[in-house]
Structures are given as C-alpha cells and as structure tokens.
Design brief:
CATH architecture of one domain: Roll
CATH class of one domain: Alpha Beta
Radius of gyration: 23 Å
CATH superfamily of one domain: Beta-grasp domain
Largest sheet: 5 strands, mixed
Protein name: Xanthine dehydrogenase small subunit
Oligomer: single chain
InterPro entries: 2Fe-2S-bd, 2Fe-2S-bd_dom_sf, 2Fe-2S_ferredoxin-like_sf, 2Fe-2S_ferredoxin-type, 2Fe2S_fd_BS, Ald_Oxase/xanthine_DH-like, Beta-grasp_dom_sf, CO_DH_flav_C
Number of helices: 17
EC number: 1.17.1.4
Number of strands: 20
CATH topology of one domain: Ubiquitin-like (UB roll)
Strand content: 15-25%
Structural class: alpha+beta
Strand order of the largest sheet: 2-1-5-3-4
GO molecular function: 2 iron, 2 sulfur cluster binding; FAD binding; iron ion binding; xanthine dehydrogenase activity
Helix content: 25-40%
Distance between the termini: 49 Å
Keywords: FAD, Flavoprotein, Iron, Metal-binding, Oxidoreductase
Shape: globular
Length: 482
C-alpha cells in the first residue's frame, strides 16, 4: 500500500495499476479534469501539478517544500508519503487563489487550455519566492507553453503574485500538514499491485539491493522523466518497477576536500547548488537542462543510467574524471564513468546492479562546458562539449575532452587529447586538435543537426574554449547556437 495526501485528503492505494500516471489518476479516477494533457512527454507544462514533501532547512527547521512536476511523467507510486496539489485545490472558500487572481487581472489567459499548468507553476514560484524576481519567473515558466497570449501578461501575473504575497490556506495549515505528512511517513517498503503489474517502494539501499536481486527484470524508477515515456509515448507495459525516490541514502550530497559524492536519486534541482558552487559551467548547463518541472523530477543517476548519447551531464562528468559506485547485493565497485558506456544504450552494469552514487572531483580550474541546441531553454543538445586541461608554463600537461551527441555514447576525444597533451597551448595546437576531432568522431545526421554541422560545432567549441581562456572577460558560457 502507498499513502499520500490529496491536498488535505488522505489517500491509501494498493490495487492501482503501477503504470498509472498522476495525470490519468486525477482525470480518470478522481474526475479532476483541470489538469490537462498536452503532449504526454513533459514538454508543454499543461499537466503541471505541485508536490509537497517534508524538508529540513539549513537551520534544522521542518518545512514543506513545494515543487512543480509534470504529472504526465509521474507515476502514482512516487507520491508515497507526499502531498499532491492540483489546480482544483487552489480556490478556497469561494475565492480565487492569489496566483489565479493575478492571471485574471493581468489577462494571462486566452483559450485557457494551458492556464491550469501556468497557474500551478506560478503557485510553486510564489511558494519558493520572497519577492518578484524576473530571472526566477522565467525559469519557473520556461516549461509551460502558450500558443495564444504571448508571455508578457503571464510574466506580469508572476510579478503580481510574488509581490506582497498574501497568506493562503496552505500557509495557515502548514503545521497541520507537516503533522499529517509525518504521520504517513513510510516506515516499510510500499507497493502498488494490480495483479499482473507491481511497483515496489523501498526505503533503504539494502532493501533496494534485495528487491533488485529478487526481481532482476524490474525497471528502476527514479524521476521517471525518461522511463515514463515508454508508457505514455510507446504504450508499453512495465510489469515490475522499483521506485528509488524514497531512499534517503541515495539523495544525499556530501562534500569532501577533494570531491563531491552525490546520491544517484538526487534530483537535478537539488544537485544545482553543489555543482554550481564548484563549477559554474555545470550550473549554467543545469539551468538549460529541460524545464524546471523536469529538473525537479529527473535525477543525476537517471541521466547517467539511461545511457543516452545526448544526455547533458555525462560529457561534463567524464571530462571531470567522475566515477560511479555500483551496488549489487552487498558488493560495491567503483567505475570510471567513461567506462560505464559501452555502446548505444549498452552499459557495463550487471544484472541487479544499480548506480548508488556519483563521485565528482573538485578543484579543476580550467573546466568549461558548452551546449549547442536549437532553443536556449527546454531543448536537447545537438552537441554538448566539456573541456578540462592542465596547463603548466604554457604547456598542456594533461587533457580530458568529452562530447555528447557525437557518437553512440558520451565519449572522450582521445585523438584530440593526444594532440593536446605535451603541446604548447596556442592557436596552432588548437587547430591540430580540431583536425584530430574528425578522427575521433563520425557523427550522424538527424533532425537536430547534420553530421557536418556537428563536427564543425565541436571544432568551434574547442576554439571557443581556447579564446575564452586567453580572454576570460569575453567569456559566454554554455551558449546556444541557432
């Protein structure tokens, strides 16, 4: 059984289909049709809901953290121990919520189909903001698309909603909600079981290892932003899933003198501060990693584990020399991330083995990363590049150069590195290294970019890296090329 709060209503579910998304649960099982299906792939934001969960802040105080999610990519099992808020829950005692009122007064709605999603993103923004902030508003709304109004009135609504925000029913009931969430906090493995399909929700790494050993055919579910597409887009059935999002051990970020250790189930939003503090380019890339809704769900371990050749984080992690800790039963092994990827969607992971954490080295001063995509926000890379050189007295003593989108896997450019290593760090060396990239990669052409464009972009990004290190005042990190 799993338990969660539907606003303030306790829901206990056991026999639901584990493949059921929160979107369809709301619409088909509860008759709450305010949440819309626009794309069923996490791109349009019409299905946005907000999930609240217990969180301890830096001062040790317990709070409810509210985050926007795409309900079309969220399986109901991931709600275990949390609070689900949909657009129907905002109106209170006959009065519109302040974010709804702001949309009305700023004329932020036209046909209305996308409006509930915008309202829920604005609600999460209001809960996480102390004052109007244009940058945060753009970030909060980047995952919501509108084909009617344009975005100016919606951004005006965001400013109004976050300016002198009034207390709402969620604020007044916060202590009560915290107590109710504590009362339903999971204490043992939860389960949804419809007879022919099941999803298990362990609470510890040891329990996960045991369950995965018992069900090696199970699909591991973290954020679900990739896995859920198999259900929503390809109409496949997932007979057994194991949800790892309630395992606190796999959501920790620990900082040591020489490294960060990031649990594989840590959301990309939660990774941001630690990675940005150490590597601003990594932080800039995370800002452009899909939408805020996706970053609130998607995990660093999931972005690695799905072995996509265009995943944004692996090239950066490979260039930094990151490692992963793989767990199977009581056995753990540490593997260089670059050795995890073998071929297209093929990895070195053994049966019943899972990524427990990612180890990211600290102290790489010349690390830079760049992403080329058709849109600045919420788009997949055509090429993603990361560079990590050590230069001593004008000579390159070591080089790690990695790319995504250039091969069947995220991959180091070994020929390029060989040209760089031991050479003088100047434009002539860079041109030789650019020529070597043609030996490292034979990229494909697809709807994102032609093979010629990809290769030329990769070469130009190396040139850009060289220019920026020579003249750091013109640095423009993680730039999109249209």
């Amino acid at each position: 059984m799993i338990q969660f709060l539907l606003n303030q209503e306790l829901r206990s579910e056991h026999a639901l289909d584990p493949n059921l998304t929160v979107l369809n649960y709301l619409r088909e099982h509860l008759g709450k049709s305010g949440t819309k299906e626009g794309c069923a792939s996490g791109d349009c934001g019409a299905c946005t809901v907000v999930v609240g969960e217990l969180h301890t802040d830096d001062q040790g105080a317990e709070q409810i953290r509210y985050r926007s999610l795409n309900s079309c990519l969220t399986f109901v099992s991931s709600l275990h121990g949390k609070q689900l808020i949909s657009v129907e829950d905002l109106k209170h005692q006959g009065q519109l919520h302040s974010v709804q009122q702001a949309m009305v007064e700023c004329h932020g709605s036209q046909c209305g189909f996308c409006t509930p999603g915008f309202v829920m993103s604005l609600f999460a923004l209001q809960k996480n903001s102390d004052a109007p902030d244009s940058q945060k508003a753009h970030e909060a709304l980047a995952g919501n698309l509108c084909r009617c109004t344009g975005y100016r009135p919606i951004l005006a609504a965001a400013e109004q909603a976050c300016c002198n925000k009034p207390q709402d029913q969620f604020d007044s009931r916060q202590a009560e909600t915290i107590a109710r969430l504590k009362a339903i906090a999971p204490t043992q493995t939860g389960e949804l079981n419809s007879g022919d399909k099941r999803c298990l929700v362990p609470l510890t790494v040891a329990d996960l290892a045991d369950l995965y050993d018992a069900y090696p055919q199970a699909r591991l579910l973290a954020g679900g932003t990739d896995l859920a597409l198999e259900v929503t887009q390809f109409h496949r059935t997932l007979p057994v899933m194991i949800y790892v999002g309630n395992i606190e051990e796999m959501k920790r970020i620990e900082s040591f003198d020489d490294r960060l250790e990031i649990g594989a189930a840590t959301s990309l939003s939660d990774c941001y501060t630690a990675l940005n503090n150490e590597y601003p380019d990594f932080g800039e890339l995370l800002h452009r990693f899909a939408s805020l809704q996706i970053r609130n769900q998607g995990t660093l371990g999931g972005n690695i584990g799905n072995a996509s050749p265009i995943g944004d984080s692996p090239p950066l992690l490979i260039a930094l020399g990151a490692q992963i800790v793989l767990c199977k039963g009581n056995t753990r092994r540490t593997l260089a991330l670059e050795d995890y990827f073998i071929d297209y969607r093929v990895t070195a992971r053994q049966d019943s083995e899972f990524i427990e954490k990612i180890i990211v080295p600290k102290g790489v001063p010349l690390f830079r990363a760049y992403k080329v995509s058709k849109r600045l926000d919420d788009d997949i890379s055509a090429v993603c590049a990361a560079f990590n050189l050590k230069v001593d007295n004008g000579v390159i003593s070591d080089a790690r150069v990695a790319f995504g989108g250039m091969a069947a896997t995220p991959k180091r450019a070994k020929n390029c590195e060989a040209v760089l290593r031991g050479a003088t760090w100047n434009s002539a060396t860079v041109e030789k290294a650019c020529a070597a990239l043609a030996e490292d990669f034979t990229p494909l052409s697809d709807f994102r970019a032609s093979k010629e464009y990809r290769l030329l972009s990769a070469q130009n990004l190396l040139r850009k890296y060289f220019i920026e290190l020579q003249t750091p005042h013109i640095e423009t990190r993680v730039t999109a090329y249209v």
